[in-house]
Design goal:
The chain is mostly helical and 254 residues long. The chain is built from 11 helices and 3 strands. It has a 3-stranded parallel β-sheet with strand order 2-1-3.
């Protein structure tokens, strides 16, 4: 859980003014509200993004900096899960504009570097982040940090299931939620779920843009029954390091 003094939303404006004057980074957790199997909550991506941001902020501070975690973005493009009740998709332009406005406001406030901790991996969503980062760079002269874990160089540091592409609400994401929000997991149901060996990488390459059409008829793929909180903690540590390292690289080149 984020320390109260590290949550931007829990600070007063004079406290923020002081932090910025002393030098302070900011991390924006970005997720979505969408179906994640019958065993994980709709806010799975948000939970993971916040967990990544919390740990990266702590790591940044351990390296001698200051960092706040911004309120999470909880809605984005979720067309893959549109056939499942509770999935809340927004238009790409809405998502792009919202992200750009929040990131731009963070830069103008004086936070540096400003980073994105993203946990929603739908290609159209990833595109909105890239576009928002580019827009902020063009309008402010400062480029937000976005380590995209769908890129091979970063994906290779994550779990085998993640690299396989069979990772929506499977072992990878189930482990992460078990680590940070175990009460939200329907654990007996999770432990009984059969594997769905379906690579979303292959699905996307085939031009399929819908979980049901792809064969993920319960909105999950991979092996959720194999998930453990220990694996989740280890994965969070890797995600935090990826983000903190990217922030450090950005700060060094500023």
């Amino acid at each position: 859980m984020t320390k109260p003094e590290r949550r931007l939303a829990k600070l007063t404006w004079p406290e923020v003014k002081l932090l910025v004057a002393e030098g302070c980074a900011a991390i924006l957790p970005v997720g979505a509200t969408e179906a994640h199997g019958p065993h994980l909550p709709l806010d799975t991506d948000v939970t993971i993004a916040i967990g990544m941001a919390d740990r990266a902020a702590a790591l940044w501070e351990a390296r001698g900096g200051r960092c706040v975690v911004l309120p999470a973005v909880s809605y984005s493009v979720t067309e893959f899960a549109a056939g499942f009740p509770g999935s809340m998709s927004v238009q790409p332009e809405t998502a792009r504009r919202h992200l750009a406005d929040v990131l731009g406001a963070s830069v103008r406030t004086g936070f540096s570097p400003v980073a994105v901790a993203n946990a929603h991996l739908e290609p159209a969503h990833i595109a909105t982040i890239r576009d928002a980062v580019q827009l902020v760079a063009e309008t402010t002269g400062s480029t937000p940090v976005f380590p995209d874990v769908t890129r091979r160089r970063l994906a290779e540091r994550l779990t085998e299931e993640f690299r396989s592409g069979a990772c929506h609400a499977g072992r990878y994401e189930s482990s992460l939620v078990l680590a940070d929000d175990p009460d939200a997991v329907h654990d007996k149901l999770r432990a009984a779920l059969p594997p769905v060996e379906l690579s979303l990488v292959d699905v996307i390459r085939a031009g399929i843009t819908d979980f049901i059409e792809a064969g993920a008829t319960e909105a999950y793929c991979g092996r959720p029954a194999d998930a453990t909180p220990d694996e989740g903690q280890r994965t969070f540590a890797i995600l935090a390091e990826l983000l903190a390292d990217a922030m450090q690289d950005a700060a060094a080149s500023a």
